[in-house]
Amino acid sequence: TNTNGGALGPLTELVNQLNTAGVDELTQGLSGLLDGLLEQVVEPLVGGIFDTDRPLPDMAGDDVMVSGTTDETFFGGEGSDTLIFKVLNAADDAGGNGSDTWRDFELGDTTLNQNADKIDISELLVGYSGDGSAESLAGYVTVAQVDGDTVLTIDRDGADATTYAPTELLTLTNVYVDSLGTLSENNQLVF
User: Fold this and answer.
1) Is the dihedral of CA 166, 66, 80, 76 positive or negative?
2) In DSSP terms, which residues pair with 100 in a beta bridge?
3) φ, ψ for residue 106 (rounded to 5)?
4) What angle (nearest 5°) sits at the alpha carbon of residue 29, between those of residues 28 and 31?
5) Is there a contact between 152 and 170 (Cβ–Cβ < 8 Å)?
6) Number of C-beta neighbours around residue 149 at 10 A
7) What is the C-alpha separation between 152 and 141, in angstroms, rounded?
8) Torsion sign (Cα): 47, 50, 55, 59
9) What is the value of pTM for the model shown?
10) Contact at 8 Å (CB) between 56 and 75?
11) Which of 32, 92, 110, 169 has the most C-beta neighbours closer than 10 Å?
12) Which phi-psi region, left, alpha or beta, contains residue 61 (left: φ > 0; alpha: ψ -120 to 50)?
């Protein structure tokens, strides 16, 4: 394959030079190769996909979304969607999850509203043995209004323990949740 005129041309030349280099040059060359690969191949291919918030197509209606290690933005679309937070790093205050944003969270009673969404924090809570009421969750989850959004903060082991500190877990964009009790009564928190 002739790659001299394309994006891979400089990389091909570098690989050819590495064939005749020593260990130090090889180490430096591999670093350069990886940097070049990232800049000249991967970034142009991905170019712009993550620059803006773009919803994924809503294929089934009731979507299951899973948080990851970075600060992510979620769009569930129509249906009763669930955002799951897993323990990715047991030592981390947020369980290794980023501070996420949900752009189209629908507030409502999940037994009456087929589009009411849910937040699953069951894996994150350490030592929680409550009944899901606002009173039993109060040491673990707080809800606050910030600039027209609702911010959920968690303390994985509860306010009385000291292993984990409270940390912002999720922002519900343009959603007004008046209290933790509302989410609890709506069955929108999975614990």
Assistant:
1) positive
2) 170
3) -105, 120
4) 65
5) yes
6) 18
7) 7
8) positive
9) 0.71
10) yes
11) 169
12) left
In this prediction, residue 92 carries a pLDDT of 97
Q: Dihedral (C-alpha) 67, 63, 48, 68: value to the nearest 10 degrees?
A: 10
Cα of 16 vs its chain's centroid, Å: 40
Spatial separation of the C-alpha atoms in residues 105 and 82, rounded to whole Å: 10
* Amino acid at site 131: D
Average pLDDT value for the chain: 84
50, two tokens = 């993550």
Give the whole-number percent of the chain exceeding pLDDT 70: 69
pLDDT tens profile 33-81: 666 666 666 655 555 555 555 555 545 589 999 999 999 999 998 999 9
- Measured CA to CA, the distance from residue 91 to residue 71 in angstroms comes to 18
> Alpha-carbon distance 116 to 174, whole Å?
15
Is 61 within 8 Å of 79 (Cβ atoms)? yes
- 79, 104 contact by CB (below 8 A): no
Helical axes 9-18 vs 23-37, angle rounded to 10°: 170
pLDDT digits (tens, 9 = 90+) for 84-123: 999 999 999 999 999 999 999 999 999 999 999 999 999 9
Tell which residue, 157, 76, 69, 169, has the closest CA to residue 115: 76
3-state secondary structure of 146: strand
Backbone angles phi, psi at 44, to 5 degrees: -65, -35
